[in-house]
Amino acid sequence: SFLIFIPIHELIHALFFPENLLSKNVFFGFTFKGFAPFVAYIGEMKWNTFIKVLLAPFIIITLLGFLYLIIFGRNELIEHIIVFNALGACADCLGVFLILRQVPHYAIVKNKKIRTYCKNK
Question: Secondary structure of the chain: what % helix, strand, coil (to 5)?
Fold first, then answer.
């Protein structure tokens, strides 16, 4: 399940970046400290775009997974993917929570390595 959903999860993040996958500002990587793959966009994003990027994999994989289960019935692999994606998206949900609480709606958000910064327009 992990090998299936992790690349898809990260690819979905990248699809919602301002310049999509075609940008030289999009980087795929792996952190050995956290033992986790990641995708990063080093350009600037609007506040609401950053929230969309963070939530997109959770919403898409979960909704498509549940839709698949509704249409085709029980499937252990799909159930595992939904659960593991939800667990993996916890960090994304925490990021959304922190952005909603700490960053003004009019701010521009920018990633630098694994840190996220904001600046006022």
Answer: 55, 20, 20
Name the helix (H) or strand (E) containing 117. Answer: strand 115-119
> For 44-102, how does the pLDDT look when each residue is reduced to its tens digit (9 = 90+)?
999 999 999 999 999 999 989 999 999 999 999 899 889 988 888 898 999 999 999 99
Answer whether 53's CB lies under 8 Å from 45's CB.
Answer: yes
**What are the structure tokens assigned to 40, written together?**
């990063």
Angle between helical axes of 76-88 and 2-15 (0-180°, round to 10): 50
The answer to whether the CB of 104 falls within 8 A of the CB of 120 is: yes
CB 10 within 8 A of CB 39: yes
CA 112 – CA 6 distance, rounded (Å): 22
Spell out a b/e string for 15-35, using b for 16 or more CB atoms within 10 Å of the CB, else e.
Answer: ebbeeeeeeeebeeeeeeeee
Reported pTM? 0.84
DSSP 103: S
Q: Is the dihedral of CA 95, 101, 102, 104 positive or negative?
A: positive
